[in-house]
Batch of 4 targets.
Target 1
Amino acid sequence: MKLDNYDIEIIVQGYPGKSVCHGGLGWSSVVLLRGEGRTALIDTGSIGMRKLIRERLAGHGVAPADVTDVIMTHSHHDHSINFTMFPNARLVIGADELRWASELPWGEPSVPELYVRELGRSPMLQTAADGDTVFPGMTAHLAPGHTPGCLVYVLHGGERDLVFTGDAAKNRAELLSRGTDMTCDAKQSAATIEMIWRHWQARPGNVLIPGHDLPMIQRDGATEYLGTRNAAIQGWFDDGLETTTLFRLHA
Ligand SMILES: [Zn+2]
């Protein structure tokens, strides 16, 4: 995907689902954004993605040390935990989000407390507030609900914008139903989803990239996905390693 001088690649595609018997799934999107002399990531995926992220970045000729900016939508582990992979990156997260996550007692769901503590101490940290420009052409918008300090980022192009929603709107179902699952505050989430729609509909062709789904556009009043879904797991149910059963996890 191109936006003016930027190249945008979804290096890990988020998945709109949750596990039935094993708690949080955490298959979130990781987006590579290059241009203006910078190499940025929007969110960093979950810890199980580290090898994959390295491979996918290498496929674009990027080493972890080349990443100049890690821009996080919120503190949940599947979006924030891999900031430690990028030693030279400026680390951006919402000021309200970091404060909230830092003050939680240890052991709360989804927040990696020790990573949050290290993030708060990092000399590379730059906290952001509502309306801040966090990157050339990109503004932060406070989007509470899923967590109290989520940020939505809007990258402004000449003809259209990209709207990175993180988990403030995790997937198509939340956007179109205007309801939310897994939120700290459903009422705040509802107001945040209206705010996201305003940014999405501000100009024709605006692309929305959610935290756990394919990118989407609005065309003639309908929502269209960009790209295709790909998700599967392999199980060992035999006595040896040779035989596996493949489960495709998409329609
Ligand atoms: Zn989240």
Target 2
Amino acid sequence: MSKVVVIGGGASGLVAAIEASNQHEVILLEKNDKCGKKILLTGNGKCNYWNHDMNISNYNTDNIEALNSIISKNNQKEVLTFLEKIGIYPKIKNNYYYPYSNQATSVRTLLLNEIERKNIKVIYNFEVERIIKNSTGFIVKSDCEEIACDKVILAAGSKACPKTGSDGSGYDLALSLGHTLNLVTPSLTPLKGEETYFKEWSGVRCDSKLTLFIDNEKVSEEIGEIQLTDYGISGICTFNISGLATKGLEQKKRVTVHIQFLPFLTTSFYDWFTRRDEEIPNHTIEELLESLLPYKLMFVLLKKANVNREDEWKLLPESKMRSLASMVEAFELEITGYLSFDKAQVATGGISLSEINPNTMESLVIPNLYLVGELLDVDGKCGGFNLAFAFISGYLAGRGI
Ligand SMILES: Cc1cc2nc3c(=O)[nH]c(=O)nc-3n(C[C@H](O)[C@H](O)[C@H](O)COP(=O)(O)OP(=O)(O)OC[C@H]3O[C@@H](n4cnc5c(N)ncnc54)[C@H](O)[C@@H]3O)c2cc1C
């Protein structure tokens, strides 16, 4: 039996501690006066903790092979069984898993109950400032206390949503032990631009297809709801492309988004609208667009295309027809910024996954050190992928130790 210290009482650390306690003495150190603060905020308070389709394409990472092995079908099965065995009964909606109660607090409570049941010692208000490796193991230090142990699981999270405790100190601890930190930027966050028309479209929610271009190269595409705001764009679709966008901006690249406001179209807007105009004759352009676009958005698009809403489509000069078509199907938005870590749900980038043994989450740099959760260079789209990775990686470390 070894003495194991787990640093961080979030989703990954709680699971790691529970699993490691099957064979070892475990001490969990949490800088807050409570564990799992972030869990309570997830899924708008409902905790979307898993996804039925855990395909690798839902993640960003620096090592796809290692991630594939971590989230293997077998590991998924084991961790889902683990979650059910501690008492989480799932409700599955469009592939998204929630606790049946629809309460994030249920997930935190059940994890904490298990911590208590396993007699795991939790020390609150213990902010780890240093980890020292010595010949027998590790010394884990706060500003006034220190604990000697054989093995350490570092589960201190990223720097997204720092009010929950994850302020990036985990990166410093891993760096001090010789690990590599890949560029960290916010993800699952709104994107900003500098256009004057933002005030006019603010408040609109609509279905669309977003295509992200970095230095004019297409890198990602998402279909779903977006929100048009007074600073730019938000909503799940925006969140899912935001990690690549924030990275591009930090690397001083040109970041643009093309918005197709009628994503159901299978032909060009020009052809489709011309047919629509023939099928519904004697209608103004506004009448033809009436049931397709919210007014605020329609008026911005017409203004930018320099088209009068009372005009008739067939009487427009070709150039204006083409201009309106491009506004509707490939509206170009220059992205110049993003809402920062305070508003972001996760961080993209982190400690390189290439420095981790994917079977056990043990460091390939320092033996007996394990790294798990969002601290690592793994982040997922909206839909439960991030908590699922936190749970699986925590479980593998606890089991592997
Ligand atoms: C608003 C919001 C909504 C989200 N919704 C979802 C969702 O619906 N589905 C989903 O899958 N994901 C969601 N996420 C992301 C998900 O919550 C995280 O990816 C996941 O919780 C990460 O778990 P973790 O254990 O790696 O880190 P964290 O949960 O951040 O835990 C890290 C813990 O370590 C502690 N700590 C940090 N540094 C130290 C230190 N030096 N010493 C001691 N303790 C320390 C922190 O206080 C914290 O308790 C959401 C995130 C946010 C912010």
Target 3
Amino acid sequence: MASIPDARPESGAAREDQVRTIFSEIAPKYDLLNHVLSLNIDRRWRRRAVNELQVPADDPDIRVLDACAGTYDLSLELTGRPGFRGRVVASDFARPMLVTGKDKLEGAQVSPVCGDSLKLPFPDGSFHRVMVAFGVRNLSDTRAGFAEFARVLRPGGRLVVLEFTTPPNRLMRGAYLFYFHRVLPLVGRVVSGHPWAYTYLPESVREFPGPEELADQMRDAGFQRTEWSWLTAGIAAIHVADVSKDASSPSSG
Ligand SMILES: C[S@@+](CC[C@H](N)C(=O)[O-])C[C@H]1O[C@@H](n2cnc3c(N)ncnc32)[C@H](O)[C@@H]1O
């Protein structure tokens, strides 16, 4: 397959523009491709992420941020849980993603906000939980993103991050790389009509730090306790990181 230079992830401000452009342009086909290309496994992963949030039931004061929310699948996984009485703020900087998903929000306690996850438009300590599915890999500065998530969390708050990884097992990795670098860009291009968005996806996963390094970055950003585990033979990983109950205490790793 001929290489497509535009698909290489940029850095800094150019990365922000590149990512906003990609998601704005593929928004109408995003949901369909998401479920088809992941063979629907993404739904199971989102369920797991919401389980890890451990949101107390029947508490109308609970506020949850879904950062890089896209078309709200993670937000809706949470608000659809029996006993959830809180409020979800779903932020994303690609307005077409928020607009495309809006029909799914009917009756759900989800407030969309168009905003950058690196400069969240919320005061310190605004949320009890922050959740991010397949978003942090796209940030131009993941460390700055984690610092921002820590800032908007209350003392004792929790961050849950779901992200693609490269499987550690050699056999699995071979099959995965073939699918990710050969099949996925082709199907993505045909269905979305976008020439390179689905080439960007595997490229962005390839250059993304592994789960250990991501956990280190979370600790550096001030999270007190971080845990992670592989999902589906290491195709994805889930991270859970807590803010200290005593906001003034230093992080203890
Ligand atoms: C792969 S999609 C994931 C969407 C959704 N969380 C899901 O699980 O389907 C990544 C989303 O992150 C958003 N995004 C990337 N960088 C962002 C940033 N700096 N600020 C806000 N949103 C961002 C993109 O616009 C896109 O909607």
Target 4
Amino acid sequence: MKDFIHFNAYSIDEAVALLSRYGGNAEIIAGGTDLLGKMKDRILPSYPEALINIKTIPGLDQIEEKEGMISIGALVTLSCVAEHPVIQKTCTALAQAASRTASPHLRNMGTLAGNICQDIRCWYYRAPQNRFSCLRKGGGRCYAIKGDNRYHSIFGGSVKGGCFAVHPSDTAPALIALNARIITSKQSISADTFFNVGVTHTTVLANDEIITAIQIPAPAPDTRSTFQKFALRKSIDFPIVNCAVAVTEKNGSIAHARLCLNAVSVVPRRAVKTEEVLTGNKIDETVAEEAAMAAVADAKPMEGNAYMIPVTRAIVKRTILACRENHGG
Ligand SMILES: Cc1cc2nc3c(=O)[nH]c(=O)nc-3n(C[C@H](O)[C@H](O)[C@H](O)COP(=O)(O)OP(=O)(O)OC[C@H]3O[C@@H](n4cnc5c(N)ncnc54)[C@H](O)[C@@H]3O)c2cc1C
Ligand code: SF4
């Protein structure tokens, strides 16, 4: 690993000032479970000169309920999210998503904020020693278009004619389904618009911007949510597809639905047509099937990943049916 300067920040202001001082050549480190692997493998053409440790900032590891909001501090670990009784009850999809992420050790280290800021998964991009200087790193081509694209996007590419790498976060679709907001040192951003594809970035965060908390509005009465994931291995593995849904019922049918997929597209993908199918209906096999078909209606698979379409359809259907059975929250 290349040398870097390590700072412990003791306040948000100090962390922001350090980021500004290095003008894009510094990175925040939280659990370090994604960042350190990237640095050790030297996957990128350039490396941060400085790492700003925010684990030394007090108060960012709290989960609070206030003014109709559940606020999850940026340093709350995935284990804490998964095990927190209020999150399990009112934001079930998020607790389930966190509990299905990686392994117990990674969940104890990895934070919720780090989970949504993690970098993309593409084996060309992640190859050690920056072996493939692809479009997403500022290079000239996307190796996945003609190469091995079995784990790439089935909903088209991005970044000027390419980049079919998927966003791998398990918690992102749950946060979008639950209408969360990402609170930063500068602003409050809807989780819907937080993800953004660019050369070496995956979110809309500026170089000197830090997530301080993630806020979820307390769900309306009769709201239920759930999360499902399909991965090749049952233990530690990134998703081939994951899905979260939140539905609010009124007079026995669905008054409001939000459903989001991830790992099948360059950013988490809200399935608006699926939400339309669900709204006004009761969940049963037929509705769940129709809603699942709508989720993949716009899919445009690449040469190696057409298998992801039936898998996605099955996971969407399973998520919707699981939501019918989930009376927890
Ligand atoms: C073997 C393995 C398996 C994994 N499996 C999964 C999986 O199944 N599902 C899944 O979703 N993920 C998985 N991950 C990815 C990831 O490591 C974890 O999801 C974890 O949550 C990342 O959090 P972290 O705190 O360790 O982030 P870090 O590695 O510390 O940071 C990741 C990125 O987020 C930025 N960042 C962190 N906190 C903030 C903040 N407050 N403000 C602004 N930027 C910030 C950092 O600068 C960095 O760019 C896996 C990782 C490994 C190594
Ligand atoms: S899919 Fe994206 S990250 Fe992967 S090789 Fe193509 S441009 Fe690079």
